[in-house]
């Protein structure tokens, strides 16, 4: 996720921010296989895309300060570009072109040690998202259950669900977690880029070697409520601890396979191998830095060169800029295409099985998707690529939406089985005994 926001909302997400350069231009991949295209189209007609992660709510906050009463969500191209020049990647017209039938909208909160502020921010994000849905009743339908998702799809609407990104949003309080669930949140990513006070993130120095005891109770209470446990952004140890604690399937709302691209945000094979037993799902991300290992290595070299130049030319930023321009010209960014995204899907299929794959684009949380998948219109091209690689229509339907619907139903069934159990009342720091 990349945030374009006022300074009070800035986050430390350097590992996810693409370089300021445009990627090396590459021709969009054409799927020249009519049979593959027909298979993909038939699959998406029967089972529209149910995407695990879209950051439109954060863009509404960053670009518009949540002032949405006059915006037209049918076409967001008129919304001013971000400070970096990025345009919106999502609107109703493009979602329809992309065959999207359901969307987890990310109500994102940056890693924030000021937990009361984080709680306020997530409530504001829920508010703006629910208002956006209510303003577009002809196209969007608020949903909290798998049945409601399928009903919205049958009605030709985009089922709209809320997914919390960043465990700081509960303020280390199970009471807040329960109330956010009551407001409609149906998954929570346990961390963002930094540790929470109870869980280790993938891109921070470990503090707990996974989950703290309170973090284990967060997972248990999420299962009791029927809220999906999202393990994107967490460390491998946290993934393992969450799988140990979970009694319902987990999700990775927007991640790739670490064996294909070594970024710590991706899922290692040790975890993929456990998904069949848990029943969980990896919703494959479209962010180029997580897909293309060559691009990841390029970015590391570019960052190292920039650091070297800043040390060499301290207090002389013009010299750094000039030298970096020369470096960029000599070493252009490798292009990332939908083939890289399909490679991750292939690997997860090999290790965990087709039943454990979904799609979580991360649109409007990144500068651009791969070539041919720069915005939400690109899903049919990706599915045609998969069909060309031999995926059957039934498998494509599973990846598009049937797998995540199964996961939701399993979480709902577990919650129903726990209806007689009282809420967990663990406090992260028990109060001192009275003297």
- Uncertain segments of ≥5 residues (pLDDT<50)? 2-28
- Helix fraction by DSSP (H/I, runs of at least 4): 40-55%
Total DSSP E strands? 9
General form? globular
CATH superfamily of the largest domain: Metal-dependent hydrolases
Q: What's the end-to-end separation, in Å? A: 47 Å
How large a portion of the residues is in β-strands, by DSSP E? 5-15%
Rg for CA atoms: 21 Å
Mean pLDDT: 92
Number of domains: 2
Order of helical and strand elements: HEHHEHEHEHEHEHEHHEHHHHEHH
How many separate helices?
16
The CATH topology name of the largest domain reads TIM Barrel
The SS-based structural class is alpha/beta
Could you say what the CATH architecture of the largest domain is?
Alpha-Beta Barrel
Largest sheet report: 6 strands, parallel
CATH C-level of the largest domain: Alpha Beta
Protein name: Membrane dipeptidase
Keywords: Signal
Organism: Erythrobacter neustonensis
Pfam family, one: Peptidase_M19
Blueprint of the fold:
Elements: H1 34-46, E1 49-54, H2 56-64, H3 92-97, E2 100-108, H4 115-135, E3 140-142, H5 146-154, E4 158-165, H6 174-182, E5 185-189, H7 213-225, E6 228-230, H8 236-245, E7 251-255, H9 269-272, H10 275-278, E8 281-284, H11 288-291, H12 293-312, H13 317-330, H14 338-351, E9 357-359, H15 379-388, H16 393-417
Parallel strand pairs: 1-2, 2-4, 3-4, 4-5, 5-6, 7-8, 8-9
Helix pairs in contact: 1-15, 1-16, 2-4, 6-7, 12-13, 14-15
């Amino acid at each position: 996720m990349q945030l374009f926001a006022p300074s009070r909302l800035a986050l430390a997400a350097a590992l996810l921010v693409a370089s300021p350069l445009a990627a090396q231009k590459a021709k969009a991949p054409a799927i020249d296989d009519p049979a593959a295209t027909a298979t993909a189209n038939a699959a998406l007609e029967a089972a529209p895309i149910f995407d695990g992660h879209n950051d439109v709510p954060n863009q509404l906050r960053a670009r518009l300060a949540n002032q949405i009463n006059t915006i037209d969500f049918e076409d967001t191209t008129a919304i001013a570009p971000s400070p970096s020049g990025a345009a919106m990647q999502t609107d109703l017209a493009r979602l329809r072109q992309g065959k999207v039938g359901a969307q987890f909208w990310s109500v994102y909160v940056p890693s924030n040690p000021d937990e009361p502020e984080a709680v306020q921010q997530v409530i504001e994000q829920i508010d703006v998202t629910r208002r956006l849905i209510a303003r577009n009743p002809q196209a969007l339908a608020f949903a909290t259950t798998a049945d409601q998702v399928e009903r919205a799809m049958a009605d030709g609407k985009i089922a709209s669900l809320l997914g919390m990104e960043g465990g700081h949003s509960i303020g280390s309080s199970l009471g807040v977690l329960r109330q956010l669930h009551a407001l409609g949140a149906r998954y929570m990513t346990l961390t963002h880029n930094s540790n929470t006070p109870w869980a280790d993130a993938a891109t921070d120095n470990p503090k707990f070697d996974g989950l703290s005891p309170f973090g284990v109770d967060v997972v248990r209470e999420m299962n009791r409520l029927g809220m999906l446990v999202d393990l994107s952004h967490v460390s491998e140890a946290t993934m393992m601890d969450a799988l140990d604690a979970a009694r319902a399937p987990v999700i990775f709302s927007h991640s790739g396979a670490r064996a294909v691209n070594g970024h710590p945000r991706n899922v290692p094979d040790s975890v993929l191998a456990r998904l069949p037993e848990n029943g969980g799902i990896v919703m494959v991300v479209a962010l180029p830095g997580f897909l293309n290992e060559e691009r990841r290595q390029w970015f590391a070299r570019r960052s190292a060169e920039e650091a070297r130049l800043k040390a060499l030319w301290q207090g002389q930023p013009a010299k750094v800029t000039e030298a970096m321009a020369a470096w960029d010209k000599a070493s252009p960014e490798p292009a990332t295409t939908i083939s890289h995204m399909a490679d991750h899907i292939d690997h997860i299929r090999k290790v965990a099985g087709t039943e454990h794959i979904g799609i979580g684009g991360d649109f409007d949380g990144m500068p651009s998707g791969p070539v041919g998948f720069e915005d939400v219109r690109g899903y049919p091209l990706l599915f045609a690529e998969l069909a060309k690689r031999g995926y059957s229509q039934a498998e494509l339907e599973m990846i598009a939406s049937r797998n995540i619907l199964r996961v939701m139903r399993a979480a709902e069934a577990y919650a129903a089985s726990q209806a007689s159990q009282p809420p967990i009342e663990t406090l992260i720091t028990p109060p001192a005994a009275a003297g």
